[in-house]
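Researcher: Please predict.
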Amino acid sequence: MKTFRYLAFIFCVLLLNSCSDDNKDVYKEARESMAISTQIGIYQEGKSVFSFDKSQHQYYFSPSDFIIRFTDMEGSSYTTIQLDALPTEETKANATVTSDMGISIDNISQLYRLKSTTDLVWYWSDENGIGVVVPNTGL
């Protein structure tokens, strides 16, 4: 009887461990992959869907309007990320994405600042598996 109780206890512990939040982090690898990238751009599930090239693109950021925008050099093609707030580690923001550059992302939920250096800021959404790497302009 003691053996049965012991095995039942071990089974319950293993079952509870398998239900932990660590195992539900479906975007962990994607987030970690984006977090080591130094390429300015937009990432979906760890893969770049837009890479900023300063010889072909322009970058615009308005902290007062919460807008991040990438355009081609002529300004005729664009991707705009309209935030509802400026994300920090503590403050999450939602965003609407509009683009005619072939990026098929409409909305980003719960975007937060994953990390920052003196040069770059990494924003990430665990809800959508979407990240954005932008120049650090005092953010």
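Model: The mean pLDDT is 87.
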